Amino acid sequence: MRDGPSRIVVRKCRQRDVAALEESAPTGRNRYHEARYRRQSEGTSTFLIAHLDDVPAGCGEILWEGAKESDVRGRFPDCPEINGLIVVAGHRSQGVGTTIIRAAEAIALRRGHHRIGMGVGEDNSRAGALYLRLGYQDTGYRYLDRYHHIDERGTRHEVTDRCLFLVKRLRDVPE
Ligand SMILES: CC(C)(COP(=O)(O)OP(=O)(O)OC[C@H]1O[C@@H](n2cnc3c(N)ncnc32)[C@H](O)[C@@H]1OP(=O)(O)O)[C@@H](O)C(=O)NCCC(=O)NCCS
User: Fold this and answer.
1) Is the beta carbon of 13 within 6 A of some atom in ligand 1?
2) For position 147, which CATH number holds?
3) 151 assigned to some structural domain
């Protein structure tokens, strides 16, 4: 998907994009981009990469089997989740995040999904406001996003973020 006259192109990540993405948006020992690419290869996700003027500027993953956190998955079955949305700091506020989200919605719709979800940190008001503007609705569901990251010294840190789950209806379906 190309956004307007400019310069944002979003497409499925290819193997050769992974190293370039790691350079633009480093994940160090966590190797998050590799894991996302692997899940895409296994068929459980679609890993989208955005280029701005041909430079990797952001990415996001659609988890087809539902939300990463099992309690959210249980509460919202058959609802793919946009996960790991990130835009490189120097490329924010230029429409890259919006273009990734719209591309994810279009792919989900093509695959026959009538809704798509996204978690956002309770303290991430800017991101939350953007998603609401794009048509996502606060489901009222609150949960803890649990993950770990490994710092440059190799120390593992457990992280827990309080999040709310947003859902966008992609098309009307009879109940
Ligand atoms: C949240 C995030 C993904 C949004 O991506 P983004 O590329 O900055 O988003 P967009 O540019 O599409 O829209 C965001 C802002 O830019 C504005 N905008 C949209 N298109 C624009 C354009 N062509 N030119 C200038 N501004 C634009 C929007 O109005 C919005 O304004 P705001 O500052 O009031 O929020 C990104 O900021 C990010 O990676 N943040 C850190 C990580 C994070 O919070 N991830 C989300 C986890 S849920």
Assistant:
1) no
2) 3.40.630.30
3) yes
Residue 174 lies in a domain: no
Summarised one tens digit per residue, pLDDT across range 68-112 is: 999 999 999 999 999 999 999 999 999 999 999 999 999 999 999
Domain interval for residue 36: 2-169
CA 135 to ligand 1 center in whole angstroms: 15
pLDDT tens, residue by residue, 10-31: 999 999 999 999 999 999 999 9
Q: How far is the CA of 129 from the centre of ligand 1 (A)?
A: 10
Q: For ligand 1, pick from 59, 82, 87 the residue to mutate: most ligand atoms within 8 Å of CB.
A: 87
Overall domain count for the chain? 1
pTM, to two decimals: 0.92
Mutate to test the pocket of ligand 1, among 27, 94, 167 (most ligand atoms within 8 A of CB): 94
> What is the C-alpha separation between 54 and 74, in angstroms, rounded?
39
146 lies in some domain: yes
Cα–Cα distance measured from residue 142 to residue 28, given in angstroms and rounded to the nearest whole number: 30
In a domain, residue 67? The reply is yes
Which is it for the CA torsion 9, 10, 11, 13, positive or negative? positive
